[in-house]
Amino acid sequence: MPLTERTVTDPTGDGTADHIRSGPTSRRTRGNGSGTVDHHTRGIARTIRPLCRTFIAHPDHRRDMLIDIPDIDTTHYQFAFKRLRDTTEPLTLERNRRIFYAPLRIFEQPNETEDRTAITLYAGRRGATDHQLTHTYRILVDHTDWTDSRIRTLRRDLRDARAEAKSDYHTGNPTKTWAFFIGSQDTDDPATFRVANPVHICFITAEITYPTF
Q: Region Disordered: start and end of each range (predicted)?
């Protein structure tokens, strides 16, 4: 089922709206808060990527912008997305299904098999004293029913995203490479989210900002 969003118009003409809708291989997104929400036009997204770019690019409009995602029980960008954050407490089950996001753990190789790809995130439970990650969130992508082309695309995008993130890390660039996904949380292991739909995961390099109000 397609994902639906309110389109965003940019009265300043600085190209932000066009930038966030660039091709699928472009992972860099800039968020400057410009643009206004057009409540009269709806756009259709075939993957979550353009929705994630819109979320990043318009931090000051998230509470007003409307979004319609099957099985996610909220209608505004502000509540449709949730960052997986560090905690010193045991990881728990999320109450609601959302577009979750967290930085990639770039120096840990993904575990790839014929049926799945396991991706480690740079978020999870940390030690109370040394603050080291002891139990990291991870995404298990089940591509049993995917075409070979879909699997190759996922792994190429992941490889390119990790390379981009490593480059930023070594040059001191403050941007991060994020994994965005819609997944089912494992009831026995809350650190694990399972993704089976290829349109429900993407990687974007950006500095995500949040409104000050």
A: 1-42
- Identity of the residue numbered 60: D
- Coil, strand or helix at 104: strand
Contact 53, 30 (CB under 8 A): no
Residue 94 burial by Cβ neighbours in a 10 Å radius (0-12, 13-18, 19+): middle
Q: What is the mean pLDDT of the chain?
A: 84
User: Is 212 part of any domain?
Assistant: no
Q: Which of 8-22, 115-129, 199-213 has the lowest mean pLDDT?
A: 8-22
107 within some domain: yes
Same domain (yes/no): 111, 179: yes
Number of domains, the chain: 2
pLDDT digits (tens, 9 = 90+) for 21-32: 333 444 555 555
Give the span between the Cα atoms of 3 and 20, in whole angstroms. Answer: 16
